């Protein structure tokens, strides 16, 4: 069937060529017949053969109708970006005014997704048929996929305006406005701007956002002209606060604008008409004097104007106060701890912070704690708005917590409250993020749309890969159309990397993968860029490095998928990548394709070069040892464990030298878990021969930073199995380093519990004591603060001493007690020759020392003299200028 179908098409192509069929002979029925051939070819799975046949025919017969249609439709079904064949075909029939065929072809193209070209041609068909309503429907589809189409957006706006559908008209006017700005056509911009002020004067956020774009794309002077239009509208509506905000923007563009300066003075007069010191403060700030910098004058005026009877202020020592009266240059304030306090106005302006009556500090100072607690707990939205507005309408959650815990909410209540607050900040349209800092939240005067909220988040994010995730989130929102100026700007951010790169880095690679994915799902986003994955891949200098820097899991997966799909030697690249990426998917892919021998070689290389592949060796040990092909690597269990011990030692030394500390701590923890917590080393030692055991233990004993308890446990395992085992390096007279501190296991654990208690209980409690003392104000005469600070110093000193001692500690193994002479862990009976009596002592360390119970430290003066004495040996010891003669009578193992 396949061969017959291809032969039939070849005959059709030849007949078309030799008979020179004219365009007048074609109708939609012929194309429907070609559609039947396409269906048969798809069912027979010979699309590629059919396309190849047609493409070869087009080389010498470029206007073959049959070949153009079949090749073009196959390419379209495969989502191949190149639509030249169908574009050429449609153009042939447009030129010959065969509108019925043009319409059929365009509708077939649109069956596979939106196409700018097909939509334009279809609109022309409906124009020729005088079907005006259908033309507008097509234009609506077209402006959604052609982000540069401004004239049609305006035409649609005027169409809906004529129908009285103002909401739809405003939407299209906004689209047209942005697109005219991009084209720098200010006359068109001004015309639409005036329309939008007429129809949605309350949408101030939109106008303020757009004026920034105008200032950047066209000029600041033009932005000022448009802001003046908005200002006039706000004044007419009596919105004095927004009017002042707009005038400040105008003055930022041109601080010498005398009109704006005069207007802002009039606005201040209107806003503060009831203020007792209004004219005085205008005079003091020199707001009306052209020689004074306008921004400094405004700032000065706004500082002063906040000082009026009944307003609240804050002093760093006296806290919140309320202005009782203002008389000339003097201001009287009632603070909670200092009532009827008089200050010079100038000093007050410099020393005090003015607060609104709804400021969180004012509420905490004036409301009962129980009432405020209940409201904050029951209404997180109100609390968030109150606190954010209290700090210049820009606040992060750390600041929110500082204001609420522990003064309003307990730490336990905060945990639950914080979860609710985060959900509100994310979903409530009343909240947005600062365009300059993703961590700062703002309260919106008007609800913000989800697309604008995500756009603002995108702009505020500084990290490239955070922006990748935000764009993905934007695209995933069902209620968002991808024709908005917000999406266009975000999408263009990534395409800009592809248009201007000179070297492939992680941003360029990520942009390619992201853009390719989006264009694949939404073909109308075609960027026109003419390069493929291999072009990008060939530009990568260091594949492992760029993979590691690709800080996005989905992009990493896409990168690996593209390598396998398009790079001939993908298996070798996977092998090179694995030690750096440690992904199971790489192993699975190589196993499926039969590359077990490459995996064997990779494992052998990792173990041989463990210094450079520490993390890979640990990962392989934990995940691949049970694979059928692993045995072919011929790495004995002893060698595997020895390699892990070397890695453990190496990571300890790297940590000590502050090299890649985080990574080495992770590797160190994993190695310790395998060797000790999982019981792997113990299991191996239970079946190993004595020579192997000695080799393993010697390596473990040489890891100087390993917890002594782990060494002691391993030693105990060996002794339990071989009671007479002689450890390499053991001596009957083994000297102890002056820095070392021999301790028993019981006291070692006790000291660890002690330091843990101080860090977990006493230090936090002390920190709270300091915080409470700080809230009491003046520190100079604050006895509670001084006592808390003294306690802090004692705790810090105690912790430092304990840490030093624990680091020096060497655990004593009772099984190694040596009774041939006096040593740690022995009980000695002495004859006091001077007095003729027997004395009994137990020799331990300074931690265990208890002279009243005859337990003495080997580091004490008397202990140091006794140490290493044998039975029968005589010695003298002087105390308080008295010399006492002793003879060692007996030495035994102490009961511990």
TrEMBL record:
<comment type="similarity">
    <text>Belongs to the GreA/GreB family.</text>
</comment>
<dbReference type="InterPro" id="IPR001437">
    <property type="entry name" value="Tscrpt_elong_fac_GreA/B_C"/>
</dbReference>
<dbReference type="InterPro" id="IPR036805">
    <property type="entry name" value="Tscrpt_elong_fac_GreA/B_N_sf"/>
</dbReference>
<dbReference type="Pfam" id="PF03449">
    <property type="entry name" value="GreA_GreB_N"/>
</dbReference>
<dbReference type="InterPro" id="IPR036953">
    <property type="entry name" value="GreA/GreB_C_sf"/>
</dbReference>
<dbReference type="InterPro" id="IPR006359">
    <property type="entry name" value="Tscrpt_elong_fac_GreA"/>
</dbReference>
<dbReference type="InterPro" id="IPR022691">
    <property type="entry name" value="Tscrpt_elong_fac_GreA/B_N"/>
</dbReference>
<dbReference type="GO" id="GO:0032784">
    <property type="term" value="P:regulation of DNA-templated transcription elongation"/>
</dbReference>
<keyword id="KW-0805">Transcription regulation</keyword>
<dbReference type="GO" id="GO:0006354">
    <property type="term" value="P:DNA-templated transcription elongation"/>
</dbReference>
<feature type="domain" description="Transcription elongation factor GreA/GreB C-terminal">
    <location>
        <begin position="819"/>
        <end position="892"/>
    </location>
</feature>
<feature type="domain" description="Transcription elongation factor GreA/GreB N-terminal">
    <location>
        <begin position="742"/>
        <end position="810"/>
    </location>
</feature>
<keyword id="KW-0648">Protein biosynthesis</keyword>
<dbReference type="InterPro" id="IPR023459">
    <property type="entry name" value="Tscrpt_elong_fac_GreA/B_fam"/>
</dbReference>
<dbReference type="InterPro" id="IPR011990">
    <property type="entry name" value="TPR-like_helical_dom_sf"/>
</dbReference>
<dbReference type="GO" id="GO:0070063">
    <property type="term" value="F:RNA polymerase binding"/>
</dbReference>
<dbReference type="InterPro" id="IPR028624">
    <property type="entry name" value="Tscrpt_elong_fac_GreA/B"/>
</dbReference>
<keyword id="KW-0251">Elongation factor</keyword>
<protein>
    <recommendedName>
        <fullName>Transcription elongation factor GreA</fullName>
    </recommendedName>
</protein>
<comment type="function">
    <text>Necessary for efficient RNA polymerase transcription elongation past template-encoded arresting sites. The arresting sites in DNA have the property of trapping a certain fraction of elongating RNA polymerases that pass through, resulting in locked ternary complexes. Cleavage of the nascent transcript by cleavage factors such as GreA or GreB allows the resumption of elongation from the new 3'terminus. GreA releases sequences of 2 to 3 nucleotides.</text>
</comment>
<dbReference type="GO" id="GO:0003746">
    <property type="term" value="F:translation elongation factor activity"/>
</dbReference>
<dbReference type="GO" id="GO:0003677">
    <property type="term" value="F:DNA binding"/>
</dbReference>
<keyword id="KW-0238">DNA-binding</keyword>
<keyword id="KW-0804">Transcription</keyword>
<dbReference type="Pfam" id="PF01272">
    <property type="entry name" value="GreA_GreB"/>
</dbReference>
């Amino acid at each position: 069937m396949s061969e017959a179908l291809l032969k039939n098409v070849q005959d059709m192509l030849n007949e078309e060529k030799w008979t020179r069929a004219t365009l007048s002979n074609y109708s939609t029925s012929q194309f429907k017949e070609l559609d039947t051939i396409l269906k048969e070819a798809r069912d027979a799975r010979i699309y590629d053969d059919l396309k190849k046949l047609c493409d070869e025919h087009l080389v010498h017969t470029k206007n073959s109708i049959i070949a153009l249609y079949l090749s073009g439709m196959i390419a379209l079904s495969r989502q191949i970006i190149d639509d030249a064949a169908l574009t050429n075909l449609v153009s042939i029939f447009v030129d010959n005014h065969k509108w019925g065929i043009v319409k059929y072809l365009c509708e077939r193209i649109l069956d596979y997704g939106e196409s700018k070209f097909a939509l334009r041609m279809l609109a022309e068909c409906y124009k020729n048929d005088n079907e005006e309503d259908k033309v507008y429907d097509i234009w609506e589809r077209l402006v959604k996929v052609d982000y540069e189409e401004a004239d049609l957006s305006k035409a649609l706006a005027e169409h809906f305006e004529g129908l009285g559908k103002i909401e739809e008209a405003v939407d299209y006017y906004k689209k047209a406005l942005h697109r005219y700005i991009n084209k720098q056509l200010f006359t068109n911009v001004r015309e639409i701007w005036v329309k939008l002020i007429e129809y949605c004067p309350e949408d101030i956020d939109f106008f303020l956002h757009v004026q920034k774009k105008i200032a950047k794309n066209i000029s600041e002077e033009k932005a000022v002209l448009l802001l003046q239009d908005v200002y006039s509208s706000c004044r007419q509506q009596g919105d004095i606060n927004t009017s002042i905000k707009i005038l400040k923007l105008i003055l930022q563009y041109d601080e010498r604008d005398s009109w704006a300066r005069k207007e802002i003075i009039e606005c201040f007069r209107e806003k503060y008409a009831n203020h007792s010191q209004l004219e005085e403060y205008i005079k003091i700030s020199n707001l009306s004097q052209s020689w004074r910098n306008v921004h400094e004058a405004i700032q000065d005026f706004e500082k002063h104007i906040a000082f009026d009877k009944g307003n609240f202020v804050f002093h760093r020592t006296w806290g919140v106060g309320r202005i009782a009266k203002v008389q000339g240059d003097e201001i009287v304030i009632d603070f909670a701890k200092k009532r009827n306090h008089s200050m010079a106005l100038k000093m007050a302006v410099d020393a005090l912070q003015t607060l609104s009556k709804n400021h969180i500090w004012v509420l905490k100072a004036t409301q009962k704690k129980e009432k405020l607690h209940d409201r904050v707990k029951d209404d997180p939205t109100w609390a968030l708005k109150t606190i954010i507005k209290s700090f210049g309408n820009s606040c992060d959650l750390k600041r929110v917590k500082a204001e609420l815990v522990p003064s309003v909410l307990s730490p336990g209540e905060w945990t639950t409250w914080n979860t609710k607050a985060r959900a509100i900040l994310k979903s409530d349209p009343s909240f947005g993020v600062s365009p300059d800092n993703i961590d700062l939240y703002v309260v919106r005067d008007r609800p913000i749309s989800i697309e604008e909220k995500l756009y603002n988040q995108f702009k505020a994010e500084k990290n490239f890969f955070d922006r990748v995730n935000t764009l993905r989130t934007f695209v995933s929102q069902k209620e968002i159309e991808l024709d908005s100026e917000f999406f266009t700007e975000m999408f263009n951010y990534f395409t800009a990397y592809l248009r201007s790169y000179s070297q492939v880095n992680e941003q360029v690679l990520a942009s390619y993968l992201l853009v390719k994915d989006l264009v694949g799902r939404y073909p109308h986003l075609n960027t026109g860029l003419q390069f493929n994955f291999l072009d990008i891949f060939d530009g990568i200098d260091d594949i492992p490095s760029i993979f590691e820097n690709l800080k996005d899991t989905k992009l990493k997966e896409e990168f690996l998928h593209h390598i396998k799909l398009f790079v001939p030697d993908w298996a070798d690249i996977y092998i090179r990548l694995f030690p750096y990426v440690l992904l199971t998917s790489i192993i699975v892919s190589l196993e499926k394709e039969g590359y077990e021998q490459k995996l064997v070689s990779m494992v052998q290389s990792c173990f041989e070069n463990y210094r450079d592949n520490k993390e890979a060796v640990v990962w392989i040990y934990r995940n691949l040892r049970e694979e059928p092909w692993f045995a072919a690597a011929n790495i004995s269990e002893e060698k595997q464990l020895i390699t892990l011990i070397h890695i453990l030692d190496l990571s300890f030394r790297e940590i000590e030298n502050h090299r890649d500390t985080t990574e080495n701590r992770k590797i160190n923890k994993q190695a310790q878990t395998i060797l000790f917590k999982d019981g792997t080393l113990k299991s191996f030692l239970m079946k190993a021969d004595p020579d192997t055991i000695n080799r393993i233990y010697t390596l473990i004993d040489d890891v100087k930073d390993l917890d002594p308890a782990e060494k002691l446990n391993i030693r105990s395992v060996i002794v339990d199995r071989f009671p007479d085992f002689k450890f390499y390096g053991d001596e009957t007279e083994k000297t102890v380093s002056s820095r070392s501190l021999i301790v028993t296991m019981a006291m070692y654990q006790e000291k660890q519990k002690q330091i843990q208690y101080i860090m977990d209980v006493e230090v936090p409690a002390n920190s709270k004591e300091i915080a409470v003392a700080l809230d009491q104000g003046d520190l100079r005469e604050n006895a509670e603060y001084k006592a808390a600070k003294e306690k802090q110093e004692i705790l810090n000193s105690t912790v430092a001493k304990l840490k030093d001692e624990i680091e020096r500690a060497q655990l004593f193994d009772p099984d190694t007690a040596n009774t041939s002479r006096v040593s740690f862990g022995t009980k000695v009976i002495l004859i006091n020759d001077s007095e003729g009596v027997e004395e009994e002592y137990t020799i331990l360390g300074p931690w265990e020392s208890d002279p009243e119970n005859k337990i003495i430290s080997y580091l004490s003066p008397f202990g140091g003299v006794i140490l290493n004495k044998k039975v029968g040996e005589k010695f003298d010891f002087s105390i308080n200028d008295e010399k006492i003669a002793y003879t060692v009578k007996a030495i035994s193992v102490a009961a511990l």
